Amino acid sequence: MTQQRLRWGVLGCADIAIRKVIPGMQKSQKNSVIALASRSQEKAAATAARLGIARAYGSYEELLADPDVDAVYIPLPNHLHKEWTIRAAQAGKHVLCEKPIALSAATAREMVEACANRGVLLAEAFMYRHHPRYERIVQIVRSGEIGAIRGIHATFTFNNAADLGNVRYRRDWGGGSLYDVGCYPISAARLILGDEPVAATAVGFTSSQHDDVDMMVSGLVEFPKRIGLTFDCAMWAAPRNTLEILGSDGRIEVVNAFVGEDMSFQVITSHGERVEAFPSFDPYTLQADDFAEAVLTGAPLRFQPVDAIANMRVIDACLQSMASCQRIEIAK
Questions:
Q1: Which CATH architecture has domain 6-126?
Q2: Which distant-in-sequence residues (6+ apart) come within 8 Å of 298 by Cβ?
Q3: With 90 as the cut, is the pLDDT of residue 174 above it?
Q4: Which sequence spans correspond to the domains of the chain?
Q5: What is the pTM of this model?
Q6: Which residues contact 46 (CB under 8 A, 6 or more apart)?
Q7: Catalytic status, residue 332
Q8: What is the number of H-type helices and E-type strands within the chain?
Q9: How confident is the model at residue 119 (pLDDT cuts 50, 70, 90)?
Q10: How far apart are CA 112 and CA 106, in angstroms?
Q11: Rounded to an integer, what distance in angstroms lies between the CA atom of residue 10 and that of residue 208?
């Protein structure tokens, strides 16, 4: 493509789209949000007007039929990701799909294949990994500064349990803490270690008030070389999102690992301690810029869609472990 900006349409008026993703795209020099769709024309028009988006559609189909839309961002409830990713691909649109990309690895593979067959790009919206601090963290780990990696511990918890009507509490819609926030620690450990897990064990707390979705999950994900990720995720617990990478000679601590304003992290070794800080880049802008670069220039995606299948494979194993109370091996 020879155009200077990637032209986006957004399917739905989800909170994450309105508060974070659309404003992030609008800060970019490589992206423009030109259309927004809702199943209500009135809601689409009001939301588009508030965000300065020129076109508002009363159905997702209308937006996909717009020839000026190059790519779509899908922030719909989890159970709708497959349908609308495939329909967008069939309409010739590139797709940025909110995490988790699907409800299973098998479904994710269908989505990846559908996009590949139509020659459109597909990426999963893990915005945190587009910030340069994660590239730096990986660089430090690879350098051996903190020694051999002994383990990773990560958390992502919040308390939203009072909002009983929230889509996160619909079991048939793909609700639950593992899908919503547990996917982040799993993704981060895979990124940092550059390897795929071999087994997972998880225990989850469910709530009858919340359609029996998992409100908190604690897990152990086993990687090669006998390295373990221990993690917990929750939607009914005190808020935190942290990451610790423990090495034989030091450790890296990240207080706001996935969300938050402070993008710094601490490196602690026998030689001393230091804080590595970064400018306050908007990770949602960086995510959109990386996607636009691939579409507009033909460069490879920074994170290929097969990564989404691999992440879902671990989530599948955690869910199976919770249901069976057993350790689940993960097939490659």
A1: 3-Layer(aba) Sandwich (3.40)
A2: none
A3: yes
A4: 6-126, 132-280+312-329
A5: 0.96
A6: none
A7: no
A8: 11, 15
A9: very high
A10: 10
A11: 33
CA distance 283 to 131: 5
Is domain 132-280+312-329 given the CATH code 3.30.479.30 in the classification?
Answer: no
Distance of CA 182 to the CA centre of its chain: 10
- One-letter amino acid at 42 equals E
Contact 75, 95 (CB under 8 A): no
Q: What is the DSSP letter of 129?
A: G
**How many C-beta atoms surround the C-beta of residue 71 within 10 A?**
21
Structure tokens at 273: 């301690």
Alpha carbon distances (Å) from 112 to 15, 84, 123, 131: 26, 13, 9, 24
Placement of tokens 């989505």 in the chain: 111
Assigned token pair, 62 = 């209308």
Secondary structure class of 214 (helix, strand, coil): strand
Q: Rounded to an integer, what distance in angstroms lies between the CA atom of residue 21 and that of residue 115?
A: 22
Which token pair is 303?
Answer: 């994170």
Of the candidates 27, 30, 99, 332, the residue annotated as catalytic is 99
Q: 């939301």: which residue's tokens?
A: 47
Q: For residue range 40-68, what is the model confidence (pLDDT) as tens digits?
A: 999 999 999 999 999 999 999 999 999 99
Alpha-carbon dihedral of residues 108, 111, 115, 120, nearest 10 degrees? -70
Please determine, for residue 2, whether its predicted confidence score (pLDDT) is greater than 70: no
Would you call 65 helix, strand, or coil by DSSP? Answer: coil
